[in-house]
Automatic annotation (TrEMBL):
Gene3D superfamilies: Nucleoside Triphosphate Pyrophosphohydrolase (3.90.79.10). It holds the Pfam family NUDIX. It comes from the Bacteria. Residues 28-174 form the Nudix hydrolase domain. It comes from Exiguobacterium mexicanum. InterPro entries: NUDIX_hydrolase-like_dom_sf, NUDIX_hydrolase_dom. This is NUDIX domain-containing protein. CDD domains: NUDIX_Hydrolase.
Length: 197
């Protein structure tokens, strides 16, 4: 079944529909849902399944997906249930903003307006869709910030499923642009501070 996505202009005005493959081939702007989960001073990363077509076996946003034709941002919350097995409501999420997330490879150009949220994870059990997600790990937010900024070459992650630790380098992350990471980490830090007030 072909998945159709609404394409938008630089002001996020809807201009048409295209298949997902064509959107990524042509580099059209489109809208996505990103949900990051924080656990106190740690951020949760999804390890993408090694069978994924794009960026297999790399660490990525806790849960994310494209908004298909006719979906609103509120519908994006389904990604959390589909990928991680957590039944959250949209109102449990804290909005961080809409960030530009552009990834260019030899085979495609992914230009997203990412509606980005954070959720304060409370130890709920994950039920992973193994076709999508191989693991969920946590990493210290400060250490991740240093890895992204280049002042640290590796960080230690801990699996939220098995408790196993693993050393991760920047090459192990999906190559989101640095400004996307910076916006997310700044937003998560602000959300943390708000919770501590």
């Amino acid at each position: 079944m072909i998945e159709f996505i609404t394409i938008v202009d630089h002001r996020r005005k809807k201009i048409g529909l295209k298949s997902r493959a064509d959107v990524h081939r042509d580099g059209d702007w489109h809208e996505t849902f990103h949900c990051w989960m924080m656990d106190h001073d740690r951020l949760l990363l999804q390890l993408r399944s090694d069978t994924k077509a794009d960026f297999p076996a790399l660490f990525d946003i806790t849960a994310a997906g494209h908004l298909t034709a006719g979906e609103t941002v509120r519908d994006g919350v389904r990604e959390i249930q589909e990928e991680l097995g957590l039944e959250l409501t949209f109102d449990q999420l804290t909005p961080l903003g809409v960030f530009e997330d552009v990834i260019e490879t030899d085979t495609f150009l992914d230009r997203e307006f990412a509606h980005t949220y954070v959720y304060a994870y409370d130890g709920e059990a994950f039920t992973l869709d193994e076709a999508e997600v191989a693991d969920v790990v946590s990493v210290e937010i400060t250490a991740l910030h240093e890895l992204i900024g280049g002042t640290q070459s590796e960080v230690e992650t801990t699996s939220a499923i098995s408790g196993n630790t693993r050393v991760v380098t920047k090459r192990d992350l999906v190559p989101h642009p640095t400004n996307y990471w910076e916006q997310v980490l700044a937003g998560v830090k602000a959300a943390q501070e708000e919770r501590h007030d």
